[in-house]
Amino acid sequence: MNYASVIANRLELNVRQVEKTIELLEQGATVPFIARYRKEATGSLNEVQIAAIRDLLLRLRELDKRRQAIVASIEEQGRLDDGLRAKIEQAGSMAELEDIYLPFRPKRRTRATIAIEKGLEPLADQIMRGSLPDGATADALQGARDIIAERVSEDASARQRVRSLFRRKAMLTSGLARGVDADDERVGKFESWIGWKEPIGKAPSHRILALFRGEEAGVLKVHVRPDSDADGAASLASHTRPQGKAGEQYDLAVADSYKRLVAPSIETEFRNQLKERADREAIRVFAENLRQLLLAAPMGQKRTLAIDPGFRTGCKVVCLDAQGQLLHNETIYPFTSVREEKAAVSKLEALVEAFQIEAIAIGNGTAGRETEEVVQRCHFNRKVVAVSVSEAGASVYSASDVARREFPDYDITVRGAVSIGRRLMDPLSELVKIDPKSIGVGQYQHDVDQRLLADSLRDTVESCVNSVGVELNTASRELLAYVSGIGPALADKIVAHRNRNGAFRSRRQLLDVKGLGEKAFEQSAGFLRVRESDNPLDRSAVHPERYELVHRMAQSVGASVEELMRSKELRSKIKVEQFVGDDCGLPTLRDIMGELDKPGLDPRAKFEVFEFDKSVSRIEDLREGMVLPGIVTNITAFGAFVDVGVHQDGLVHVSQMANRRVNDPSEVVRLHQHVRVRVLEVDLRRQRISLSMKNV
């Protein structure tokens, strides 16, 4: 199979682009590296397109592997001829391949094989020729119909006709599972889906996953079939239907074949397709949410006091230096008594002064808003910014091997508070230490294909890390592991080398790390920064392979590289067209000029302080019509969840997001965006809040 031409056709790309991308992938190049540093080779394909080529290539190779196994099996049976081989070679999908293989698949004992053992195959052949012998018993006719039913079910063209019917007319329906009573306590969670019915083409991802979850829980029974079995049997029937009484027997066999053999098989196939479609959409939403979370605006290197709030067990307080190193920790108990509250305020004031704190990070979980109020009662002698920070996944981090390795002498409460503080300073650097599935920005994440989810989330984290760039001398091993071409093993070696030999003075010193060769250096160097390097290009995203080119640029205007980077006037004199070469075209040259203008520019937004409305702190404080500030905490296919500071996120349904029709909520909002919302409804019993962003 010519993979490049098939992929180019499916993805609507140029064959040459695909060929070069496949070549680079097979040479061990990563998606971020290809997208950033091999634009001339790929025609400036982006990461999404390159990843799509990679994934489709893997699927096509899996298809070919199955194709070879089928050919070998049929050949071993001595039943492979040129026509059959050609059909197998031309099959373009796994379903088509399996249809061809179905008559040759080793069979278990079926009703048809039992009938054949009884010698009823000649009777089945007679019926198919249009002849029904006198004196055939009911049992004999039943056996003959069983044989015909199986033959029909194994006809590839007949199965394709049924597939076509399913694509046009199949409905997604659900009802109570057999044996489940309407008053069963499990039913309440899925009551909206009892008696549900809609065309499969219109069913959104979240609804498909909800229905299948109900089925998995044993509450619902879900079907994916056309309404009419008669339509299915008609699709399955051959154009060479026998006439007369033989035809009547044939019709009975076809109806049985559809209902007993073909429909369940095709239904399973379509259920799998629906599930895969729903999984991919849910994973896409999850990955986009994760991207936005990882690329959230960092406050930067600020001396930070972080608080992990708690009522009965107290609030764990830690003080961090500007690099996130732990300086001090203790526990305060502001909610146990008035005296303890005053003591807590005094303690916070003293810590802010003693450690010259610039920012306070407050976990947004239980007691978060109340802790904010305590902080607001403090009188500091310096300007201090207090910020509510998401705790999602902090407990997972605090109990992890990563946290134990970082803080072997501290308990999980201290580790959790440190994580909250570091998240404020640099969300990306801290969140890469946590399994993305624990961060809480996905829907139905436990219901989707876990391998597909893990692959997609890893791609997302890798993309974010490499788009921001990593400081080689301060990055954790977890952050380094996501840099293009490095991975966990090399990350450990880099950190060990750094601990043993001190800070790296240049990118080239990476090659001194044992086990890190030229290939890994090529893939990783452009994404690593060495701020203290004597070479200013080591602080930028210019790849070392282009350093000599930049020197020539500088020489062309009579300047050093450093002078060129400082002077916009000097850069304006450079005519990039003069530097086009065989492997370096205008896309790369423009990237280089952009880096010389703003070396190592962080693509993340500028940090903005957010405050909740001080008049609400509990769901009971909310009233319909209230307009409140909020933070987007999760984006789904059906809307966005917004934290308004009452310990229960409210839902802005997609229909309430704008004064226009919105198909994708991510078109309107992004994760952690500051928004204003109106309270539409508060359901205290179910702890649900409905919000609107219209005309606010």
Which keywords apply here?
696 residues; alpha/beta; Arc Repressor Mutant, subunit A; Tex N-terminal region-like; Nucleotidyltransferase, domain 5; five-stranded mixed β-sheet; five-stranded mixed β-barrel
Q: Determine the fraction of residues in helical runs and give it as a percent range.
A: 40-55%
Largest beta-sheet characterization = 5 strands, mixed
Main CATH class of the largest domain: Mainly Alpha
Q: What gap, in angstroms, lies between the N and C termini?
A: 56 Å
Provide the β-strand percentage band: 5-15%
* Overall form: globular
Write out the CATH superfamily name of the largest domain.
Answer: Tex N-terminal region-like
* Count of individual beta strands: 15
> What are the low-pLDDT stretches, counting only 5+ consecutive residues below 50?
none
What's the average pLDDT? 94
Give the CATH architecture of the largest domain.
Answer: Orthogonal Bundle
**Computed Rg:** 32 Å
Q: Look at the helices and sheets and give the structural class.
A: alpha/beta
Query: What is the count of structural domains?
Result: 5
Strand order of the largest sheet: 6-5-4-7-8
The tally of helices reads 28
CATH topology of the largest domain: Tex N-terminal region-like
Provide an overview of this structure:
The protein is of the alpha/beta class. The chain folds into five domains: 3-104, Orthogonal Bundle (Arc Repressor Mutant, subunit A); 111-290, Tex N-terminal region-like (Orthogonal Bundle); 304-425, 2-Layer Sandwich (Nucleotidyltransferase, domain 5), CATH 3.30.420; 487-597, DNA polymerase, domain 1; 619-692, Beta Barrel (OB fold (Dihydrolipoamide Acetyltransferase, E2P)), CATH 2.40.50.140. The protein is built from 28 helices and 15 strands. The chain has a five-stranded mixed β-sheet, sandwiched between helices. A five-stranded mixed barrel has the order 11-12-13-15-14. Strands 2-1-3 form a three-stranded antiparallel β-sheet. Helix 12 (205-216) crosses helix 14.
